[in-house]
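Figure 3 (text version): structure tokens given as input.
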């Protein structure tokens, strides 16, 4: 009798164990395959050719000039370069980390200036103003400020961008209810097309100040920037998961009414079963003015996180696995205390593409709060009509920008940041162009706008509807730079007297 009972229990237990192993084996195999299939790097541009992170803008140039690491020598070098380029009628473009995607750092047959070595840092401990060379990366500025108990006020969500590039695109990030980075700039020095150096601020060369902030390098070379900083406080992490239609209500209840909230970002799910129907609201509240000691630790889970991300490429099971994994991991982190600098000092290496035949493509759309759900509905309609692999949607809040001439935020907006994995083929590029124009039209119909640093897929009419001040902006460019010394593909496409219409 006992033997028979043991036999009856043996098979259900064995079946259960087999089922557990089978269930665990699928994600394990998926992650292992993603890890083993990861690329080792992407090809660099050939000699005499410039490109950017998209690898879709290979363009012949006359020369690449890397500035000196000595600040005084670098300035003298740049002044000489501007004079020589003007004499030779060579256009100049300005490059930092090259994370823009529309040829914004490239001028055909021109001189490309590599500003990365120009990266000196100095903090005024009385005013807390950081003076920084425009070539410095945030990954260099954040640890420097950390040593003084200070932090960057506004920047992107990753640390791989240059300060000059960030100002030139007027970036924004996870900082709660803040205007773009232009709002934190006190002043900067600018090398103009005539070879002179001027200081620009809200009271000195004020118009030029507003044109350069979000001016895409068309008015001169940004040298030193004076940025306001904030304390490196300690935060507590919070997270809630809601239906995307309820995201704004939850944001209003949990974030807008809490004066202790410092940083916020949202995520939308991208798997096919319930596409963009769920959202994760992540926010950080003030915990203490005393930061956690210990600086920055390496992410011990970086390889696993990358494998999970890679598994989501062109695979709906992988996308569900990533969404569920993120929820599981972030749930365990609720209540975790972390400093502002630790939150902001994140590298994009976990998700950046390393294969030759694919590339990472970003879109960004700025939608007024009242039209949040309607833009999600537009994405749900248009995305399935195209063959693009959407990997991520991040949601950020951005306040009205009153500083930059070419502003994308005329009122409070929620920014939808779309991250795609795109094949590098003419067919994929044509399909992406068509999708982009549909999404731009949807944003414009909802009183929104799109962000300019990415692929130049907008029509001239769309650009001018999103940025009605564009023609005045380009006219002032020629006023300050009558010989059009500073150029790039963005300007040649939309703003030059004989533009290259996309």
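Below: residues designed for each position.
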């Amino acid at each position: 009798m006992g033997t028979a009972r043991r036999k009856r229990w043996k098979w259900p237990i064995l079946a259960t164990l087999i089922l557990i192993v089978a269930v665990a084996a699928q994600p394990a195999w998926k992650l292992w395959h993603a890890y083993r299939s990861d690329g080792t790097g992407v090809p660099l541009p050939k000699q005499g050719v410039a490109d950017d992170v998209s690898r879709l803008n290979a363009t012949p140039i006359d020369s690449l000039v890397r500035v000196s690491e000595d600040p005084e020598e670098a300035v003298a070098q740049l002044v000489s370069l501007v004079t020589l380029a003007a004499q030779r009628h060579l256009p100049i473009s300005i490059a930092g980390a090259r994370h823009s995607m529309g040829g914004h750092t490239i001028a055909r047959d021109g001189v490309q200036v590599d500003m990365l070595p120009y990266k000196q840092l100095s903090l005024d401990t009385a005013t807390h103003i950081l003076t920084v060379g425009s070539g410095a990366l945030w990954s260099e500025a954040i640890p420097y400020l950390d040593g003084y108990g200070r932090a960057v006020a506004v920047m992107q969500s990753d640390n791989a961008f240059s300060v000059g590039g960030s100002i030139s695109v007027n970036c924004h990030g996870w900082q709660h209810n803040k205007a773009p980075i232009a709002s934190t700039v006190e002043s900067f020095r600018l090398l103009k097309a005539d070879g002179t150096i001027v200081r620009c601020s809200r009271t000195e060369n004020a118009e030029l100040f507003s044109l350069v902030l979000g001016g895409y390098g068309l008015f001169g070379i940004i040298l030193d920037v004076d940025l306001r900083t904030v304390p490196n406080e300690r935060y507590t992490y919070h997270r809630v998961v809601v239906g995307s239609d309820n995201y704004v209500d939850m944001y209003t209840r949990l974030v807008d009414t809490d004066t202790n909230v410092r940083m916020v970002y949202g995520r939308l799910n991208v798997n096919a079963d319930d596409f963009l129907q769920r959202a994760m609201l992540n926010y950080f509240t003030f915990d203490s003015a005393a930061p956690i000691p210990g600086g920055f630790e390496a992410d011990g889970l970086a390889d696993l996180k990358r494998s999970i991300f890679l598994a989501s490429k062109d695979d709906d099971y992988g996308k569900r696995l990533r969404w569920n994994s993120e929820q599981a991991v972030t749930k365990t982190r609720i209540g975790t205390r972390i400093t502002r600098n630790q939150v902001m000092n994140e590298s994009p290496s976990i998700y950046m593409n390393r294969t030759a035949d694919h590339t990472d493509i970003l879109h960004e759309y700025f939608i007024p709060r009242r039209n949040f759900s309607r833009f999600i509905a537009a994405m749900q309609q248009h995305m399935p009509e195209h063959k693009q692999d959407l990997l991520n949607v991040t949601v950020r809040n951005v306040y009205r920008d009153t500083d930059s001439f070419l502003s994308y935020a005329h009122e409070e907006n929620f920014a939808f940041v779309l991250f795609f994995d795109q094949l590098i083929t003419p067919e994929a590029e044509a399909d992406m162009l068509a999708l982009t124009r549909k999404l731009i039209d949807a944003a414009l119909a909802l009183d929104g706008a799109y962000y300019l640093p990415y692929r130049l897929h907008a029509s001239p009419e769309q650009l001018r509807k999103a940025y009605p001040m564009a023609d005045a902006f380009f006219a002032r460019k020629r006023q300050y730079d009558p010989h059009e010394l500073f150029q790039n593909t963005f300007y040649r496409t939309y703003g030059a007297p004989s533009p290259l219409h996309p």
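The first helix runs from residue 2 to 37.
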